[in-house]
Description:
The chain contains two helices and no strands. It is mostly helical.
Amino acid sequence: MEEFPVWALAGLVFGTVLGVVGAFGGLSAFLIVLVLGVVGFFVGLVLEGGVQMPTLHSRRQSPGRT
């Protein structure tokens, strides 16, 4: 049995919401929804374990610092 295409459905819903907001809310509303959607996507990745936060933090530190 195939898995349900959750990411494809999420992308479809997000694209539809962006289209409706862009059509009726203008550019500023479109950009706000886009930015919040991207933030929500990354929060979801972190919660699912797709992104390791300590790994990102260690890359930002330079090797010479203590």
